[in-house]
Design goal:
Helix content: 25-40%
Number of strands: 10
Largest sheet: 8 strands, mixed
CATH topology of the largest domain: Rossmann fold
Number of helices: 6
CATH class of the largest domain: Alpha Beta
CATH superfamily of the largest domain: Vaccinia Virus protein VP39
Strand order of the largest sheet: 3-2-1-4-5-10-8-9
Order of helices and strands: HHHEHEEEHEEEHEEE
Radius of gyration: 22 Å
């Protein structure tokens, strides 16, 4: 069974999602029947049906309202609320979701985003710095009062995003974040947590205690997370997340 699941995930990387194909074939008769009903009823409507404009959406009828990735949903809310509560004069983000977390922040403050890849996007309050975040060379020691890095550090050094393959890339990014954090400042950091391992070249999954150990020069202010059931647990004990398969750990640090 594990082999089949791994094969399915591999094929998805090449655009071959057999599960979606199966669901689509199952839903196709319902789509055809619905289109016929609409076409008959809309002959004199302002929106008559044109065959050229058919856009079959075959995967939405039997899913829950508002499909979301529960990890990103809770994580981005957690991070945005943390930053909003402090309203720093300057906030710098490393590699977090633009359409989720960063867009949340842009509703109430400007954000400087760091990524090794180029960014062809402009929005009010958004500024972009293309840089290797494992060094953050343009930022002096103890210079940033508010930093976030949500669900990004697990990828550093795996080559997935065009960066160099480096086994300890995750150590470098954590060391850089700790270096530039200002005393009294806040670092919001999240990664996949659970049984520690690497899923090359997708991600690393960390024991939460590994993260705390590598940030030993910082103080853990709070820890929250999303467990294997997709439940958000606020102010949790990091060790309670060590045995997960793959959840999300959200760490708030200060220096």
């Amino acid at each position: 069974m594990r082999l089949l699941i791994s094969l399915e995930k591999l094929l998805c990387q090449f655009g071959l999602d057999f599960r979606k194909v199966a669901v689509g074939l199952f839903e196709l008769p319902h789509f055809i029947l619905s289109a016929r009903r609409y076409s008959s009823a809309a002959v004199k409507s302002e929106f008559p049906l044109s065959i050229r404009e058919l856009r079959p959406m075959l995967h939405d009828r039997r899913v829950q309202a508002g499909q979301v990735n529960r990890i990103y949903f809770f994580q981005d809310l957690w991070g945005a609320r943390k930053v909003r509560s402090k309203m720093p004069a300057r906030h710098v983000d490393v590699g977090s979701s633009l359409e989720g977390f960063v867009s949340h922040l842009l509703c109430f403050m400007p954000v400087e985003v760091i990524d090794i890849r180029p960014l062809d996007l402009s929005a009010q309050g958004l500024s972009f710095i293309r840089e290797d975040a494992t060094t953050m060379e343009r930022f002096p020691d103890n210079s940033l009062e508010s930093i976030s890095c949500l669900h990004a550090a697990e990828h550093f050094g795996l080559g997935r995003y065009g960066d160099a393959v480096k086994v300890d890339g995750y150590v470098d990014i954590m060391r850089a974040l700790a270096r530039v954090l200002k005393p009294g400042g806040a670092l919001y950091f999240s990664v996949p947590v659970g049984r520690q391992r690497v899923q090359f070249n997708s991600q690393r999954i960390f024991d939460p205690l590994t993260i705390i150990r590598h940030f030993q020069g910082l103080r853990l202010v709070s820890f929250s997370g999303v467990n294997d059931n997709g439940e958000f647990v606020e102010n949790a004990a990091p060790a309670d997340f060590s045995g997960l398969n793959c959840g999300c750990g959200m760490f708030e640090f200060t220096k």
